[in-house]
Design brief:
Low-confidence stretches: 161-168
CATH architecture: 2-Layer Sandwich
Number of domains: 1
Number of helices: 5
Helix content: 40-55%
Radius of gyration: 15 Å
Number of strands: 9
CATH topology: Alpha-Beta Plaits
Order of helices and strands: EHHEEHEEEHEHEE
Mean pLDDT: 89
Strand order of the largest sheet: 2-3-1-4-7-9-8
Length: 168
């Protein structure tokens, strides 16, 4: 799972360095909590983004849903409009402990780059493997910069229904 704060540079300029640091730390706390709650781990941080790994695809989806819910509540409670895009791709990679490497990492990063503001974008492979209370919609093919093949992805959102009722 990759996350990225949308339009972070203008936000840094607007807030100033010290206030931005406080916002970034709160953002990181929210992500860390959601990732840990779903048995994931933060592998590394790149500026205002996170790369997290999970043992199960449903855990990654549940974590992403929690991140968006918690950040939405944070926006209501503060005057700081932090919006995050999230990409999830379930594929085998090389786990070096302190880092993840391989084609799948690049694919996941590109999927996250294609997500819109407050969107969770998951690959079809992820959705096929995940179980949980979410619905998938807007199934589409996306071109991933630097990669030879398009990938099937869909947006996901929470639902009261079970995973076997996903809509594409």
């Amino acid at each position: 799972m990759f996350t990225d704060i949308v339009d972070s540079t203008p936000l840094v300029v607007e807030l100033g360095d010290e206030r931005w640091l406080a916002v970034l730390q709160r953002h990181n706390d929210i992500l860390d909590s959601a990732i840990r709650a779903h048995r994931g781990r933060v592998v590394n941080r790149a500026g205002d983004g996170v790369l997290a790994a999970f043992d199960q695809p449903g855990s990654a989806v549940a974590s992403a849903l929690r991140v968006q819910l918690d950040l939405g509540q944070e926006r209501l409670a503060t005057d700081v409009p932090v919006h995050v895009r999230i990409g999830i791709h379930w594929i085998e990679i090389l786990d070096l402990g302190r880092d993840l490497v391989g084609r799948g990492v690049h694919e996941a990063a590109r999927v996250a780059q294609c997500a819109g503001t407050d969107e969770i974008l998951a690959t079809a492979v992820t959705l096929d493997a995940a179980l949980g209370s979410f619905s998938a919609f807007n199934l589409r093919q996306i071109e991933l910069r630097g990669l030879p093949q398009a990938m099937s992805v869909a947006s996901i959102q929470p639902t009261e229904k079970s995973a076997d009722r996903r809509r594409f």
